[in-house]
Amino acid sequence: GDGIRAGDNYNWCSGAPCPELNGPRTIVRVYKPDPTPLTLDPTGIVCSTVFDPQPLPPDLATYDWTPVCFVASPEPGLYTVEVVVVDDPTDPADNAGLNRYSIRATGGAKLSALGDMSIFNNITGTTEFFLAEVDDGYAGRTLVVELYDPGDAEENVTNIIKLLGPGGIPWTGGCDISKRERLTTDFVFLDSDAVGDECDVNATRPTFNYDGDWLRIEVDLPEGYTCTDCWWKIRYEYSGSTADTTTWRAYISGSPVRLVLGG
């Protein structure tokens, strides 16, 4: 992760320059494989690293990778990574901000999310993100992709969200699109893309404003669905500037699939 930047663009303090020790305390813990990876049993901690508040002069705000854990001769299985941001109880008003960071794993390990994940996109133009690995064993079932808050581009900036199938090719096998405004409401049907048409969502504001909404894309995988490169992706096509934090999750007829942070 980025061990120097405690926040982005002075988000953890008002005005500039920031205080000498700016930002929250961030703790990264890695847990050994467990049949219930979300239990987070303290006895299963393999390693733990604490990042104390750091100074934030611009010349030190570099994007450097900092090791947080090394496991020698690891046993096979799913290791859970927990990131905790510790509030400062002496100054609750200073506990708001954006503590953005990246995570990667080396040595042949694959990094994925448990259930859902969030990604911040601030790049103008076309950007593709790895979404889920859906092998051909799921043929004949329904792939469901849910996107939360996918509408943070500026008004009148073209924002097209496109679903890419295996091999990074736009999916043309048909899809249904629906939305809901909160978790306590039901999804309401919006649109369908027929077989032969690309599966995409126009989220260009203000005409199509999904800011703060859940979008659901449902894809019926055909019985003959096969793949070699089985990764599905999401492509964002922006015509201007954006600052979009979107939460994703994917599942197949009640079974979660692997969401990834990178290839």
Could you characterize what this model shows?
The protein is mostly beta strands. It folds into 2 domains: about 25-110, no CATH class; about 115-260, Jelly Rolls, CATH 2.60.120.1090. The protein contains no helices and 16 strands. It has strands spanning about 25-30, 45-50, 80-85, 110-115, 115-120, 125-135, 140-150, 160-165, 175-180, 190-195, 200, 215-220, 230-240, 245-250, 255, 260. The strands form 3 sheets. Strands 5, 7, 9, 10, 12, 14 and 15 form a 7-stranded antiparallel beta sheet that branches. Strands 4-16-6-13-8-11 form a 6-stranded antiparallel beta sheet, with no helix packed on it. The chain is globular and about 50 Å long.
Give the N-to-C terminal Cα separation.
17 Å
Shape: globular
Given helix and strand content, the structural type is mainly beta
H/E element order: EEEEEEEEEEEEEEEE
- CATH topology type of the largest domain: Jelly Rolls
Q: Class of the largest domain, according to the CATH hierarchy?
A: Mainly Beta
Helix content: under 10%
